[in-house]
Amino acid sequence: MNRSETYIEDFPVQGFQQDLINWYQEHQRDLPWRLNQDPYRVWVSEIMLQQTRVDTVIPYFNRFLSLFPTLTDLAEADEEKVLKAWEGLGYYSRVRNLQTAVREVAEQYGGTIPDTADEISKLKGVGPYTAGAILSIAYGVPEPAVDGNVMRVLSRILLIYEDIGKAKTRMLFEDAVRKLISKEDPSSFNQALMELGALICTPKSPACLICPVQEHCRAFDQGRQKELPVKEKKIKIRHVDMAALILRNQEGKYLIHKRPKEGLLANLWEFPNVPVQKRGVSEKEDLKVFIEAEWGISAAVGDQVSNIEHVFSHLKWNIQLFEGQCSHEAMDAADLKWVTLEEMESYPFPVSHQKIIKLAKEVTA
DNA sequence: AAGGCGGGGGG
DNA sequence: CCCCCAGCCTT
């Protein structure tokens, strides 16, 4: 007997399914990826929705699908164009993994996205949640799709005090969903749990008074909905001081650099920059030395233009921004280019460096 | 099991 | 300010 049976025992599964799905049929939002059940569209939407709000995703989804309407279109596209379509959405490895995976589907499965848990879970970037979401929504397979919403909702309904920050806890909720899920309509059931989490059973102040499954909710019954879910404190973020340079040559072009293919902001473009040990000591010299050593470019580094703060989930950059000139001829390499502001628009930049582009336009205007 | 990996909206 | 969002990968 696994632990979820303790939670499902004496739970009115049928009535819960009915009330949940009926509410969903009536109140579900009109979202672009609900237009049909095309597995490719479902897949793209689920990747975009990882750690990202619905309202943020909508315009990206529409643009992405118009650029890459089919799995084949995405498989054959240039990675740079794909990253550009993802620019600003964050977690860029999602889309690099997605393209790797659709290429694998094109080659290994003749372009048809697999419909079994074993096969689909092997695809790059498809974890337990995404596998369950695609299988249930696109193929009607009764697999759990447990995300943050589902853990919050079910922790309240079933009164589960396990820490949802722990990896093992997700499996507990998956076991619960396997016992709760509607075999007749797994798609609606899974989406209904998430929709309920988004619209009613929200993190801070759940709208229990209008909740369609209020009568099935153990937390509401005991007035404990605000205690759930239980989640560990998150760690403090690290601070990193950096110096960056808006470098122009005599043609008025700007130097940009492509980041390495792994790690933070992989394969995105940036302005030349170096981490600095101590603020206010030798940023200008650090930049000059770095650019000379790295690319053999001799630059005259001028005044500080601005200061940029950019916060990630795990670290914070404080970037001192300088401008500089050099007489270097426009010699491009794969990861180093001299471009005009107009040409720059076709390269994918992280938001932190989009801020620099904006300043470059002001400074040189 | 823990940490890296983006960015933005809402309380 | 902090939280947290339709998570996954690597170590």
Order of secondary-structure elements = HHHHHHHHHHHHHEEEEHEEEHH
Distance between the termini: 70 Å
Q: Profile the largest sheet.
A: 4 strands, mixed
Average pLDDT taken over every residue? 94
Q: What is the CATH fold-level name of the largest domain?
A: Endonuclease III, domain 1
Please give the order of strands in the largest beta sheet: 4-1-6-5
> Count of helices?
16
Structural domains: how many: 2
Task: Kindly name the structural category.
Answer: alpha+beta
Instruction: Determine the strand fraction and express it as a percent band.
Output: 5-15%
Q: What is the CATH superfamily label of the largest domain?
A: Hypothetical protein, domain 2
Low-confidence stretches: none
- Principal-axes shape call: elongated
Give the radius of gyration.
25 Å
- The oligomerization state is single chain
Total beta-strand segments = 7
> Mind telling me which CATH architecture of the largest domain this is?
Orthogonal Bundle
For this structure, what is the CATH class of the largest domain?
Mainly Alpha
Helix share bin: 40-55%
Sequence-ordered SSE layout with sheet pairings:
Elements (H helix, E strand, L loop, with lengths): L3 H5 L4 H15 L11 H10 L5 H14 L3 H6 L2 H8 L6 H16 L8 H5 L6 H12 L8 H10 L9 H14 L5 H14 L18 H5 L15 E11 L5 E5 L10 E2 L2 E3 L7 H13 L4 E12 L3 E11 L10 E4 L1 H4 L6 H13 L2
The chain binds a DNA duplex (11 and 11 nucleotides) through helix 3, helix 4, helix 7, helix 9 and helix 10.
